[in-house]
Amino acid sequence: MGASPLKAIKKEEIKQPSLLLNKPWRELKFTEEVRTELIEDIKKYTTKADGVEQPRILLTGQIKAGKSSFFNSVNSVFKGFPIFQATACEKETSMSKYCRTYAVYESKDGKTLPFTFCDIMGLEPYNDKGILVKDIINVIRGYIPDNYKFDPNEAKEVFETCTEQPSLADKVHCIVYVIDASVVNLLDKELQNKFDEIHEEAHRLGIPQLVLLAKVDLTCNIVKDDLTKVYQSRYIHEKAIKVSHMVGVPVSCILPVRNYSSETDLDMKVDILILKALQQILRQSEAFFDEIKQRGKSKEAPPLTCEGISSRISNS
């Protein structure tokens, strides 16, 4: 006897969806022409804010996600070969013990590119490890100097480390959360709470927030075999939606990337994902300067001094 109609329907119902979307959830061409256009667009970027020549981009997120690796990857693209300046490691604890500000230079004439990265200690789910949220907020507000060493056990009073009133150039103009796509489903609740605290403060200050969805090649075998399928992968799209809800940013601000780690030569497809992410970061940075202008027109109360910030932190 043949299979009953009911069994045939059940088999049809449990049929797995295709691993590839019918249409990419974001359009991006992977050609040398696109790579060149992205590089030129980034090189000619200028800010609209007086006194700020380079947007200050904060890289934060879980340990081992690829914060330092993203800076190294950007640096590699503009140097013309893989270079690993910022310390990146696969150890179980953060390698970035200090607050470091990095500039990127063109390989041909050595000119500084129009942005800087602020790389800090990674977030961990335990309160006695990794950077404290209070310290991240101090970095965002411009109260933590370059080469400041973080103490996972105690956030110092900010007036011990800062100037009386940071300038606009000292502050963070865009926050980029770096999240390992391969462990999104395993994020600890305590780590999630830390993301929420940072997001709430950044939102209150009007600072744009984006997410680098790193290690997409280790998350999806289709993408590992062909990086151009990153926006057609159903699995990566589902990860982007999940991270969007988790961090509180729209899917349009989720930027999949694959960083350089052990390569000795550049890859055009890797470069394009990195450059596209950087282009979007710079574009969103402009929203912060627009916010500053708008708040200035509304006669918002002046920023707090170091002592005022310390008082707020100690009372929170």
Can you describe this structure?
This protein is of the alpha/beta class. The protein has one domain (50-315): Rossmann fold (3-Layer(aba) Sandwich). It contains ten helices and seven strands. The protein has helices at 5-13, 32-43, 67-79, 133-140, 189-205, 216-219, 221-225, 234-247, 268-297, 306-315; strands at residues 56-61, 98-105, 112-119, 148-149, 174-180, 209-214, 254-256. A seven-stranded mixed β-sheet has the order 4-2-3-1-5-6-7, with helices on both faces. Strand 2 and strand 3 form a beta hairpin. Helix 2 packs parallel to helix 9, helix 3 (67-79) packs across helix 9 (268-297) and helix 4 runs parallel beside helix 5 (189-205). Mean pLDDT is 83; it is low at 299-316. InterPro entries: P-loop_NTPase. This is Interferon-induced protein 44-like. One of its GO terms (biological process) is immune response.
